[in-house]
Amino acid sequence: MMQKHLTDAADAASAPLLEISGARATIRLNRPKHLNRLQADDLDALLKLFDRIEAEAAIRVLVLTGTGRAFSAGYDLNSVAERATSATEEQSAGSAFEVVVNRLEDLAVPTICRLNGGVYGGSTDLALACDFRIGIDSCEMFMPAARLGLHYYKSGIKRYVSRLGVDNAKRLFLTAERIGAPEMLRIGYLTAMVPADAFDQEVDRLADILAGNAPVAMAGMKRAINEFARGKLDEEAADRRHRDSMRGAEIKEGILAFSEKRPPKF
Hints:
7-stranded mixed sheet
């Protein structure tokens, strides 16, 4: 299948890479020598890539992954330290990173984090903001905030609590304990854990399922689920999306496809 690269060639050696293949977009963090540690420029680049993805109606699913042996070592600690020395109440050390993670969580298309290796620090929240996380069976994670003297930003803590529960959030934040893939799966951090020889097959399987489902219905339900998790459901908007779906083109095609015993074409 023909692929389209949207990242400028001059930035390809370090900035996140965007590749589009059919209905699937893949963003690849691309600083393998530094375990894909994120820098300030990467945050700006990710926001622009998210905008590009939402602007292309043909894109139905996003896969986020890393180059090399790790998914990401988190946000550059030197950048955090520099921001901390000049931070005000309006601009905390993690504010720029928080904006990126929240933007990813709210992306209209469904998202899969392909955890090709270790995920550390702030990138554990970046992955958690994705709708699904598929990890290779050798991956690991830890959140070192307590060791660094950092009080994590509130939306990140809330995401941990809503996704993983209070006890697991306390364990990961307060102990800074490193855990491996089986434990990541057990506590619900991973959607699936697979060996290396089946890793891409499982990512492709889930991406194909999501790319084939009704995009408007999925986007609306994803929004409602996220709002429920935050305790801030816009009930009027959710009701309106439900009513609109009952007379929309997607449900007509879905019902017709079901009656004709064929896959729907949305």
